[in-house]
Amino acid sequence: MTLAIVRHGQSTFNLQNRFTGDIDVPLTLLGKYEAFLAGKQLRETGVTFQDAFSSRLLRSIQSLKAILEVVDPKKKVNTYQVKALNERSYGKLQGFSKTESEEIYTKEKVNEWRRDFNSRPPGGETLAETYQRVVAFYRMTVEPLLLANHNVLIVAHGNSLRALIKYIELISDEDISKTEIATGTPILYDIQEGSNHCLCYQRRQSRHLQQR
Which residues are marked as active site? Predict the structure, then answer.
């Protein structure tokens, strides 16, 4: 089985370097092109998908649609929009640029809210809370599909995918702060079923094998 995860293409707020969180903004022209390129990269792997998931936010939905149109426009794929995959809420920081936020709260505090696993921006959500909702959804919905030999595509957001990667690759709370996910760049995991219906994940071009 194969699991592919993709961060949506560039959004209008990405372009403006603003905290987006769960504000619903569309892709830019570059973002649409990045989604097209992600689809092209996936098509070149030869993997086809039975199930595909986006968040309920427009930039994720637009990206998933564009990717699937490139991978195989004739293939029927079961697609789902899932609230649990929505981007982490940044609370009062949302809509402000990184520079504006640093002027109000200091650069050190903003960086702590962005990167630390347990730090909460004012009125927002910790990455730990994002992790809980993403992993609960993933274990209940996606893992059974993988165990049924389905290939699955997930198109979501920087923080919701950081949370998922933390789970899959057993990354520590400290090290996840260093993890970056580029827009429109697929990450693929080859998966085998291990003992007791556990899943063994191997990230492509990586020798590190994880079991869940």
Answer: 8, 87
Q: Could you give the dihedral angle defined by the CA atoms of residues 78, 33, 1 and 44, in that order, rounded to the nearest 10 degrees?
A: 120
Other Cβ atoms closer than 10 A to 25:
18
Q: What is the DSSP letter of 140?
A: I
Residue 96, SS3 per DSSP:
coil
> Would the CA dihedral through 145, 73, 41, 114 be positive or negative?
negative
Strands (E), 134-198: 152-156, 187-193
pTM: 0.94
* pLDDT, tens digit, 9 for 90 and up, residues 86-120: 999 999 999 999 999 999 999 999 999 999 999 99
Non-local CB neighbours of 198 within 8 Å, separated by 6+ positions: 211, 212
Amino acid (1-letter code) at residue 81: Q
What does the alpha-carbon distance between residue 97 and residue 19 come to, in Å, rounded to a whole number? 6
Residue carrying the six token digits 């372009």 = 15
